[in-house]
Amino acid sequence: MTFQFLAAAGEAAPQNSFGFLEAMEQGGFVAWFILGVMVIMSVGSFYILFTKLFEQRKVMNQYGAVRNQFWKQNSLKEGAAKLEKNSAWRQLVDDALMAEDQHSKMTDKLEAHDWMHGSLARSEDAINAKLASGLPFLATVGATAPFVGLLGTVIGIYRALINIGIAGSASIDKVAGPVGEALIMTAIGLLVAVPAVFAYNWLQSRNRRIAEMLNGFSTDLLANINSNGTVKPVTTTAAARPSTAKAASATKTTTTAGAKPATTNPGTTGAIKK
């Protein structure tokens, strides 16, 4: 008798129909469409994050060759040969050499400094624009993904109210599905927006750092061309030499100053006076 009771209770037990897939199925085409839009936003955000991070890292690593090899050459053309082709730094050098050649062909009186400064500024803007491509998508996702999720939330709550009106009572079985769909859409919208905002701010800060490096390099190029190759930035090796020389000079001075009292002989001085 007891076993019959338990069997009957097991057969009559309701199954769980309030999972994610069940909630999306109850939402119909609109719920799946909103979910698809947010999936596309998320995949696009991570794709832009990794591709732009790879580009930025490549530009920063190439800057080491600029500091260590480029300025050690006798001319800008020789230094350009040490840089990678199609790199941002090679582009700046090529544009500077081209601007110098174009200025020599001009018949109008235009200062070389102004012409070359404008040419290098245009080259920097082109590089910065390429690095910044794709970031507006991250900003758009970060700003709109919560509202796309909110749209799904509004539709889910609306469906819950319709079910309440049809049933005439706010029973849990009539409300749980649409409300669960609404909460899921809100959570997905936030999960898509937050990484996009973090990625946008991080990539922007790295782009500003690269822009500073490009600006400094173009200034060094301009100074080098206007001085006929005389002015060059101080490299790490060259910067270490003055400090070494100063330290050696200070050591020599200290040794000499310390040796002077030892060479003075009071006895000899007294003998001379006598």
Gist?
By secondary structure, the chain is mainly α. It contains 9 helices and no strands.
Layout of secondary structure:
Blueprint: H1 2-12, H2 20-68, H3 76-81, H4 88-104, H5 112-132, H6 135-167, H7 172-226, H8 236-263, H9 266-273
Helix pairs in contact: 2-6, 2-7, 4-5, 4-7, 5-7, 6-7
Architecture overview:
There is one protein chain. Mean pLDDT is 75; it is low at 5-16, 237-245 and 250-274. The chain has one domain (16-230). The relative contact order is 0.12. It is rod-shaped. The protein is built from 9 helices and no strands. Helix 2 (20-68) runs antiparallel to helix 6 (135-167) and helix 4 packs across helix 7 (172-226). By secondary structure, it is mainly alpha-helical.
Low-confidence stretches: 5-16, 237-245, 250-274
Q: List the helices and strands in order.
A: HHHHHHHHH
Count of domain modules: 1
Shape: rod-shaped
- How many H/I helical runs? 9
Distance between the termini: 139 Å
Largest sheet, in brief, is: none
Strand content: under 5%
- What do the pLDDT scores average to? 75
Tally of strands: 0
Q: Helicity range of the residues?
A: over 70%
Structural class: mainly alpha
Question: Which value, in Å, is the CA radius of gyration?
Answer: 36 Å
